[in-house]
C-alpha cells in the first residue's frame, strides 16, 4: 500500500534504495504508512469556511470553550478517583487473603494465589489492548509527545481508546506490576481532551465547532495539564509539562492550562478527602508525593559538589536503563508479531515479577527490619500492618512489605517519607536489583506500563543506599547523609537521565517537595544528568516513538541539512485536481492515491500525476473531499478523521459536479526549491504542517514535500546516501 501523505514517489526512499536492499519498516524504523500527520493549517479562509463562520457567534464559541475546559476539569479527576478508589478496595481484599494464608503457614497456597491472581489480571489487561485497542499499550508518553507535535496517532482520540485504556490500566495496577496508575493515566486525560468535540446525541453535537486539528490538540494538552496536576498534585507542574510537549503555542492557552490544572487538582483532593472522611489536621495524600520532612529540606552551598555527583550517577544509570530498554523494545516489535506471542510475553513477565517478589519476601522477611513509624498512621488506609508475622505493636509492620506489596505510588511515597535505619542494606540492594529488572521487563510489553514512576523508585532506592554508604564516612557532614533528601534528589537524577525531561520535571519535583529550598539542587541535577545521558543517545520516549513509526521531527535539525536544499528530496510528480470535478473522479482519485492533500490546477480534466512547473489555485485536503461525496455521514463538510483503510462510501450521485474553488485553501504554505532542509524542518515543526508546496523563482509549483520526506532524508544522511 502506498504511503498516505507521500505524493507519487520519485522521492527520498527511492534515492535510498540505490545500491541497497529494500529496507524494512521494522528493522530501520521508518515512518509507517498507516500513520499520518495532523494539519494545524486548517481551517483556512476558503469561501465555504467564511460562510460557515459568519453564521457562528464568536461569543458562543468562547462560552463553549470554557464549558469544554470545565468538563475536562470534572471528568479527568473523577475518572482518576474512580480508578484510585477501586484499586484501593480490590487491593485490600487481595492483600487480606494473601496475609491470612501466610499467617496460617500456607506458603505454597499463598505463592500460587499471588501468582495466579496477578497473572489472570495481567492477561486480561493485555487482551483488552492487543485484541481491542493497541493504542492503550505502553506508558502513553510517546503517543502524547507525537499527538501534541502533529502526529495523527491512529485511533488515539476515540471512546474505545478511553475505555480500554482505563480498564487495562486498572487491571495492570491490580496485578502489582511496576507501571503504576499515575503515568498511564496521563494518556487518559489527553484522549478525553481530544475526543470531547464528539460528545453529543445523534445530530446534536454542541462542541463540534472544535473539530479542527488545532482545537483538538489544544484540548488534548489541557487534558494533559489536568491529568498531570491530578496525579502529581502539581498544577504549575502540569502547566509546564503540557507546554514542554507542545511544538508551538499561543500565550492565551497558558492561562487556560493553568486554570484547568488547578481546578482539577482541587477537585480531586477535596473529593478524596470527603470520601475518606478526613478531618482537620489529618493527612492522607492522593498523589504520589508527600511533603518532605522538615529535617530533610535543609540545603547548603557546600553540598553543590554532591549535587553534581548525583547528576553524574543519575545520567549514567539512566543511560544504561535506556540502552537495555531500547534493545528489549526493538526485539519485541521485531519478533512478536503474533497477538498470542504478545500475550505470552505478558504472561512470562508477570510470572517473573510475581514469583520473584513473593519468594524474596518470604526469604528475607524475618531478617528485615520492623518499622514503627508515623507512616502507618498517616497512610492508615494501606494494609501494611497485615504483613507483620514477627513484628509487634499496633503501628509495626515488616519493611519488606512496604516494597513488595504496595502499588508503585505508595512505594514512592514510602521511600520519600520513612526515616533512616528503617530499611536494612541487604533489603534495599535486593529490591533495587529486582525492581530494576522488573521495570525493564514490564516497560515495552503490550499493555499499560510506566517509565517515570519506576525510575523514581529506582532513583529513590539507590539514593537511600548512597546515604548508608556516606554514613560510614566520618569526614562527611551530616546534612549530606539525610536518606529522605538523597532519595528525593537521586529520584530526580534517575528520571531525568531516562526521560531527558527538563523544565517540566524540574517544576513537578520542586512543587511536589512542598518547599522552595530544592530549586538549585534539582536544577543542577537535571542539567547534569540530561547532558550526560544525551551523550549516549536520545530519551527512551523518543526511541519508542521511533520504533512505533511516528512521524516525529526534531526541534533542532541535524547540521548537515544546511547544505541540502528542498529540491534534493521533493516529490516532483503531483496529483492535481481540476477546479470542477465529478463525484466519480473524486472517488477514483481517493481510491487510487492515499495522499492527505491535493493541489488544484487547470489540468484539463486529467487526474494523473503531473510534473511542474504548474500554476496552482490552491490546496484541498483529503478529509474535505471525503466529506463532499458523503455529506450525510458527517455533521459538516469541514473536518473528519479518516484512516486510509476505511472503504469510501458515496451518498451523492456519481454525476454530481463540485466546484472545488469554494472549499480549497487559496493561500497554502510554500517554500522555494532552493531553501535548505533546515528551513523546511523549522517550518514544519513551528506550524505543524503535513504538506508544503515547493515553488520556483516564478512561484510555479514544481513539487511537494511532507514531514515523512524530512524523516527519510535524515535517515539518508545517517546512511551516507546524501
Topology of this protein?
Elements (H helix, E strand, L loop, with lengths): L11 H5 L8 H4 L7 E2 L9 H8 L3 H46 L3 H26 L8 H8 L2 E2 L6 H16 L7 H14 L17 H20 L2 H11 L6 H25 L27 H32 L3 H26 L5 E3 L2 H4 L17 E3 H6 L3 H8 L9 H18 L9 H20 L11 H17 L3 H11 L5 H16 L5 H8 L25 E3 L4 E3 H10 L4 E5 L7 E3 L4 E6 H8 L27 E3 L10 E3 L4 H11 L3 E5 L5 E6 H12 L4
Parallel strand pairs: 11-12
Antiparallel strand pairs: 1-2, 3-4, 5-8, 6-10, 7-9, 12-13
Subcellular location: Membrane
Main location: membrane
Membrane topology: Multi-pass membrane protein
**What CATH architecture of the domain at 58-276 would you give?**
Orthogonal Bundle
Structural class category: mainly alpha
N-end to C-end Cα span: 26 Å
CATH class of the domain at 58-276: Mainly Alpha
Helix proportion? 40-55%
Q: Enter the CATH topology name of the domain at 58-276.
A: Clc chloride channel
